[in-house]
Amino acid sequence: MKPAFVFGTRPEIIKLAPVIRAFIERSVEPLLIHTGQHYDYEMSAVFLEELELPPIDYHLEVGSGSQAEQTGKAMINIERVLMKEKPDVTLVQGDTNTVLAGALAAVKLKIPVAHVEAGLRSFDRTMPEEINRILADHASEVLFAPTEEAGKNLEREGITEGVYVVGNTIVDAVLQNAEVAERKSDVLGRFDLKPKKYILITAHRAENTDSRENLTKLVEILEALPMRAIYPMHPRTKNRLKEFGLWERINSIENLTITKPLGYLDFLKLEKSAFAIMTDSGGIQEESIILNVPCLTLRYNTERPETVKAGGNILVGLEKERVLRYLNKLLEDEEFYLKMANAPNPFGDGKAGERIAEILLELHKKGELKVRSSRFI
Ligand code: UD1
Ligand code: UDP
Fold this sequence. Notes:
The chain has about 375 residues and is of the alpha/beta class. The protein folds into 2 domains: about 5-170 and about 350-375, 3-Layer(aba) Sandwich (Rossmann fold), CATH 3.40.50; about 185-340, 3-Layer(aba) Sandwich (Rossmann fold), CATH 3.40.50.2000. About 50% of the residues lie in helices and about 15% in strands. The strands form 2 sheets. It has a 7-stranded parallel beta sheet with strand order 3-2-1-4-5-6-7. Strands 10-9-8-11-12-13 form a 6-stranded parallel beta sheet, sandwiched between helices. About 50% of the residues are buried. The model has no long low-confidence stretch (mean pLDDT about 95). Uridine-5'-diphosphate (UDP) binds near residues 10, 11 and 284.
């Protein structure tokens, strides 16, 4: 069997690594196609190295651009590779432009698509990610939903065939790397941070960074934080802060350390040792609950509602008063802190990657890994 993996951004590399590993352990050689949506060393190559992935077979060097430019260029380049390599299945993960491009290019060549982390919905169609998820799910033959709730979202849209609830591969990634991070990372010393005495911040989503008004609100929140904080910053956010004239202002916040994005081992260590995490990232909302760290999400909705229901995550948007109210409660009310920190992980047991490989191998063996003419027969 020949599985092709199409990926291009930081979270896709992290979340597909356990699946790639599972295939290799079963003596199946994966074909690795990197679109180049992320290209800086610290947004891509550092993860390929740390997660010890085999060499990339095709680097497509798509790079940055408008939504259509990036997606279109990725589609054209992916199609070329798929036509030449004729894989048995194309795996994509998540909701980026790379995912949409990979799914569309493959299904139109009648190569079945397997979507890892299928069925997530924020129910906010103004987000590029929501459009990508919906379309990728509808182009897919095999849908690996991380939770029952994600499976139900698919059912609501008429997708019932080929759906498997397997857990989220982020649990595999955390379990496979947390102990290594503990041993190898000296990140706390490098930034002079004390365990549980700082807040870890990340924010990069278009809705938070592309408007001057929202980015200013983010800076105002950071200016009001009641304790030390560290913010490994996505290049998108840095560019926008400079563009909107906010770069000097954010850098003059006394309690805040801004750094370039960090590798996975350093970042896991920072997450695990944080007092709390504030983020708009999908993957980091998941990792917080896995690592027992309270999470305040800088968004008004989430496609990870399981984390909120479990009690480990609170949506605070960009509302300064709301952020401060919850941070102060976390600082002053130990019972509240422990309740958030000990919220149960809804994303499975860390064997999602193995399940995905097993299911695809079995479908292939039975000759069932193909594009069906209709989902409804
Ligand atoms: C993309 C995903 C988002 C995901 C994020 C993961 C889409 C629509 N969005 O957002 O869902 O959460 O990846 O991190 O696919 N840039 C660099 N160096 C890089 C990569 C990007 O400088 O290596 C800068 C460029 O100025 C670029 C901007 O960041 O224009 C945005 O990059 P892009 O890949 O378009 O989207 P992300 O914000 O990374
Ligand atoms: N991450 C990292 N270094 C950083 C920031 C994030 O290794 O400086 C990891 C994080 O642990 C998580 C993933 O990147 O696994 C999340 O990626 P991101 O926030 O870019 O994307 P999203 O999950 O929102 O799509």
